[in-house]
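Progress note, sequence design subtask.
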């Protein structure tokens, strides 16, 4: 008789043993999955969980117990499976019982139920076992090895995906911070911002980060394939690599600051949005903590910030590693499914009868996982309140001031004071008593809003609609008053607000900024704002669509307006619009205010207003050709033209005047190209063109190039202030001044304006000196993952050579592991082949046939 082989694959085992081993695998997998779930809940609630744990609250303690218990019970499931395969059924059954007891006590009941079922399955195997059963030891199947260097390639692919999306899809607010400060702190500040965004953004409240890390984990895990631990290792490596990039970037910035001193921070570039930065990722989690803290050095505040950042980073780590594990399961399930389909196609009876999809727990787990993946998509639900409509308010005062500067560019200011907006939901109650400013503002790159004081410095960096309150007094008392004011404006405008931050303003009180939905544009906000004003007022002359591409500022509420030396404390509306140049040269001009400012209607005063007046300001020396009676009235001393529209029948402000505007001299400062990768050489050209038919003289061109803030990251050739003089500039000719700048860092460089002084002799022989300045030129320097890799390697030599160690050792280690696995499998196959070979045939010895009575084959007679 052939000897029974002692080693066989588990798939050759009897059905009962295979099913018991499968149940053991499912028990361990479910227990580990529950452990991951409980640990993820701990991470998601880390700030409150930690405080509860210190206070010995039952729920935080229970989460810890459940996490540890599931980890212990999950490990028992793997060992029980090995014992079942080794036919150690008594030990497997005993371990199943102990695991079930632990599952009921410290692992959340579900593992206990599963292990009780496993206990019965092992008992069923023992009951059906017969004394003459073969003593075969069944070998557990080896999981798919995946691709060669799969973990290495999976890590590289997932890491590059994360970096690419981080650099190219950085949110607007963080992009603005990077563009602002990277030219000052260096190119690695961009990496720091990208890594902070990738690591410390809460994925549960910001779906793009959740989607990114799930994709990265799935990609890395699929490429790695094989064991589930491979997906975990790929996710862990990607997370740690991003964290390491952030550490290297912080180290580089720290070295630069300590070696060269703290650089001066320039003003934000045009278009920078404080609202977008404050409502974006990371900041939206930290700012509420800052608002609630009594001091930035408060230990409770530091603890809250640390726990919040740890929670966000922990969630990222959990998501990428769980998705990596899931991808590995999908890989294994796909391999099993392919084999199962292959068997069905080939139609082997034995395999077809004994093997089905129920016997493949990995495949079942992968299928269930694919069904649950859509649940990861968390919809972002936003609600908007309908606009609050109300009747026309009561009497007020309105003034429209238009000033024509020396270059013929009109600047329009519209003011309405003492507005009664109670019908709109804005009631000036006691909550406004201590408010210096309580206004909803729309600032479209107008840097002159509210003068040049400290308040203007705050408003200049608000390029998105915002509600701003500035209170004097106790911050705790004024916080409640400010919140009540915010509720009024939210109802009146039909816009929900979110508190961004509250900052002390020196001795002027506390400034609080509330932001609406970031998707609310300046144009839409201006439309809502002007909808609160009286329908017959001058505001009906202004079409928001006509000014959306101009620099303007608008505010409604309690704003610091002084009229005729009197401080207005009631509700007011203030708007300022800077129009492009309209007039040049001397001579007789016709002024039509409706045409000049693009008003759709003629100017007619509101009978319900106490005052409806228009003021036109000219440069001193202007000669006007228009009636100088009571209304309109021209003041020669101030070169100001007054028109009381309330008592006037004039449909518009029309006048003829002779005014020596400047000739049509155009000065531009342009960078070519306007943007490019780090290291691009940009040519900056200052051009002066004479588009007029007159000659100007004594030109003096000065360009200071840029502020010293960019001295370390911007190479200028030739360096220093550039200057050029010209005696005359005849009609149709131009002058140019050029130099080159090379960017060393990423970000937006704001070059200083260039100025031109020239002299022009008017037709009446009057010599007038003019000074013209360009707009600041901008250079956008871009950096991506490749640039950051090369710069990191260059800036951190010789330490950067350490970065090559994992890149070089990983293929060597993977190759060694592959060779070792091949040798082990070859040895197992040789062992199975040796035991499965039948022994040599022996000549049977002559034996006596069995006794029919006793069945014995013994030749000797039985002893008496």
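Output:
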């Amino acid at each position: 008789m052939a000897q029974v082989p002692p080693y066989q694959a588990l798939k050759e085992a009897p059905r009962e043993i295979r099913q018991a081993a499968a149940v053991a695998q499912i028990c361990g997998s479910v227990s580990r999955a529950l452990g991951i779930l409980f640990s993820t809940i701990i991470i998601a609630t880390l700030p409150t969980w930690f405080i509860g744990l210190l206070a010995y609250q039952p729920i935080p303690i229970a989460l810890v117990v459940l996490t540890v218990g599931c980890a212990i019970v999950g490990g028992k499931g793997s060992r029980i499976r090995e014992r079942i395969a080794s036919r150690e059924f008594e030990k497997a059954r005993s371990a199943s019982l102990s695991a079930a007891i632990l599952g009921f006590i410290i692992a959340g009941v579900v593992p206990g139920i599963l292990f009780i079922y496993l206990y019965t399955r092992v008992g069923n195997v023992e009951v059906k076992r017969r004394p003459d059963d073969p003593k075969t030891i069944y070998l557990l199947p080896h999981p798919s090895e995946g691709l060669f260097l799969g973990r290495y390639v999976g890590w590289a692919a997932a890491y590059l995906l994360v970096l690419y999306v981080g650099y190219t899809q950085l949110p607007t607010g963080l992009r603005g911070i990077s563009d602002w400060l990277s030219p000052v702190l260096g190119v690695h500040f961009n990496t720091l911002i990208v890594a902070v965004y990738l690591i410390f953004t809460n994925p549960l409240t910001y779906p793009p980060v959740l989607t990114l890390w799930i994709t990265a984990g799935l990609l890395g895990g699929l490429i790695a394939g094989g064991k589930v631990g491979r997906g975990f290792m790929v996710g862990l490596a990607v997370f740690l690599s991003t964290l390491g990039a952030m550490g290297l970037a912080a180290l580089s910035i720290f070295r630069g600051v300590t070696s060269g001193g703290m650089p001066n921070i320039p003003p934000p570039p045009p278009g920078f949005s404080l609202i977008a930065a404050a409502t974006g990722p990371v900041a939206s989690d930290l700012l509420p903590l800052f608002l609630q803290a009594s001091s930035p050095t408060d230990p409770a505040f530091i603890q809250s910030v640390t726990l919040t950042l740890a929670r966000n980073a922990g969630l990222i780590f959990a998501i990428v590693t769980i998705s990596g594990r899931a991808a590995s399961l999908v890989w294994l399930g796909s391999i099993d499914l392919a084999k199962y389909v292959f068997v069905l196609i080939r139609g082997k009876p034995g395999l077809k009868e004994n093997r089905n999809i129920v016997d493949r727990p990995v495949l079942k787990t992968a299928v269930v996982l694919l069904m649950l993946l859509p649940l990861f998509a968390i919809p972002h639900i936003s609600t908007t309140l309908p606009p609050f409509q109300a009747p026309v308010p009561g009497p007020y005062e309105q003034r429209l001031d238009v000033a024509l500067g020396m270059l013929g560019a009109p600047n329009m200011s519209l003011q309405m004071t003492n507005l009664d907006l109670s019908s709109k939901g804005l009631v000036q109650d006691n909550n406004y008593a201590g408010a210096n400013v309580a206004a909803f503002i729309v600032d479209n790159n107008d840097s002159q809003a509210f003068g040049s004081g400290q308040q203007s410095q705050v408003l200049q960096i608000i390029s998105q609609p915002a509600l701003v309150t500035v209170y004097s007094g106790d911050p705790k008392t004024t916080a409640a008053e400010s919140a009540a004011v915010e509720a009024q404006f939210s109802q009146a405008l039909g816009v929900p607000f979110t508190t961004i931050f509250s900052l002390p303003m020196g001795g002027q009180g506390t400034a609080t900024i509330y932001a609406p939905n970031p998707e609310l544009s300046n144009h839409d906000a201006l439309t809502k704002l002007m909808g609160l004003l009286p329908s017959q007022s001058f505001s009906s002359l202004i079409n928001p669509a006509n000014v959306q591409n101009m620099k303007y500022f608008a505010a409604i509420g309690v704003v610091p307006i002084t009229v005729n030396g009197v401080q207005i404390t009631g509700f007011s509306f203030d708007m300022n619009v800077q129009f492009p140049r309209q007039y040049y040269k001397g001579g007789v001009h016709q002024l039509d205010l409706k045409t000049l400012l693009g008003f759709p209607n003629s100017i007619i005063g509101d009978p319900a207003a106490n005052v409806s007046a228009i003021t036109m300001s000219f440069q001193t020396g202007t000669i006007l050709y228009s009636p100088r009676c009571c209304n309109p009235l021209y003041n020669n001393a101030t070169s100001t033209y007054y028109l009381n529209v309330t008592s006037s029948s004039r449909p518009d402000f029309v006048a003829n005047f002779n005014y020596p505007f400047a000739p049509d001299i155009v000065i531009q400062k342009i960078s070519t190209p306007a943007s490019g990768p780090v290291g691009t050489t940009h040519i900056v050209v200052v051009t002066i063109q004479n588009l007029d038919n007159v000659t100007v003289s004594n030109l003096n061109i000065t360009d200071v190039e840029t502020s010293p803030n960019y001295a370390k990251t911007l190479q200028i050739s030739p360096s220093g202030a550039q200057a050029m003089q010209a005696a005359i500039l005849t009609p149709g000719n131009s002058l140019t001044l050029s130099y080159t700048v090379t960017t060393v860092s990423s970000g937006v460089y704001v070059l200083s304006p260039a100025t031109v002084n020239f002299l022009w002799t008017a037709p009446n022989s009057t010599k007038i000196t003019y000074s013209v300045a360009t707009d600041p030129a901008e250079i956008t320097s871009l950096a991506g993952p490749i640039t950051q890799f090369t710069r990191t390697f260059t800036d951190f030599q010789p330490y950067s050579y350490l970065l090559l160690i994992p890149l070089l050792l990983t293929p060597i280690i993977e190759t060694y592991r592959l060779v070792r696995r091949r040798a082990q499998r070859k040895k197992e196959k040789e062992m199975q082949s040796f035991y499965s070979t039948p022994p040599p045939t022996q000549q049977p010895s002559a034996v006596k046939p069995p006794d029919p009575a006793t069945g014995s084959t013994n030749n000797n007679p039985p002893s008496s």
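Residues 85 and 433 are 81 Å apart (CA to CA). Work on this subtask will continue into the next period as scheduled.
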